[in-house]
Structure formats: structure tokens, C-alpha cells
Amino acid sequence: MTSPHQLARYSLILVWLWTAVVSLQQIDGLSLSLLQAQTLIPAALFPWVIWGGAITDLVLGVLMAWRPGRRVYLAALLMTLVMTVIGSVATPGLWLHPLGPLSKNLPILALLWILAQESPA
User: Fold this and answer.
1) Average pLDDT over residues 65-89
2) pLDDT score for 120
3) Which residue range is the domain that position 102 belongs to?
4) Could you give phi then psi for residue 95, rounded to 5 degrees?
5) H or E segment and range at residue 80
6) pLDDT category of residue 71 using cuts at 50, 70 and 90
7) Number of folded domains in the chain?
8) What is the rounded distance in angstroms from the CA atom of residue 56 to the CA atom of residue 1?
9) What is the pLDDT of residues 26-65, one digit of tens each?
10) Nearest-CA neighbor of 68 among 14, 120, 1, 16?
11) 96, 102, 111, 62: which is closest to 82 by C-alpha?
12) What is the DSSP letter of 42?
């Protein structure tokens, strides 16, 4: 039987890996249009932002699957906070989006905090 801790971990692994794949699959679609909707990041950096974000998501997902622990969860928590702040400043309207691309980060942050507190270093 899967414990609540394992269920939280597996769901977060899926979120990070899926986000990496979808970000690159949508590099000329939704990923690009989200960046075009903001004015903080110059257009010349869009490919770097998309690839950098996807690689970061992939690495975090793999680390959570392969070597879960407090440091990995705290790194993911920090990355989620950073991306939430950047998204809030660059495109504050995302907080009002009906599918909640930024508001969904709140339960993710809570899960990461709980996992970090319950995991060995």
C-alpha cells in the first residue's frame, strides 16, 4: 500500500517530469505564448528560458525519483517560489486564470515543505 508520503512524492515527480516534457513539446505554442504575454523577459531569451526551465524541471523530477531527500525538496521549493515570484511580477494576471497556473503552486509548496520536514538530509 502506498503511504501518503509516497503518494505526495510520486505526484510531485509526475508534475516536474510532465512539465519538462510539455514545456518543450509546446516550445512554439503555449510555452512561447506565455512568455510573449509578459514584458519582463526580452524575447531573445525566450528559448533559453524555456529550455532552462524544462531542464530544471527534469532534473528536479529525476532527483525526487532517484535520490529523494530534504535537499531535493528544498531545492524544488526554492525553484517553485522563484518561478512563482517571477510569474507574479511578469504576468500577474495568471493569478486570475481559471485553471490556476500560479495558484496551484500553493499546495505544491505545502507538499514540498511537508516532505522536506519529514525527510532525512
Assistant:
1) 95
2) 81
3) 4-118
4) -70, -20
5) helix 70-90
6) very high
7) 1
8) 31
9) 988 988 898 898 888 999 999 999 999 999 999 999 999 9
10) 120
11) 102
12) -
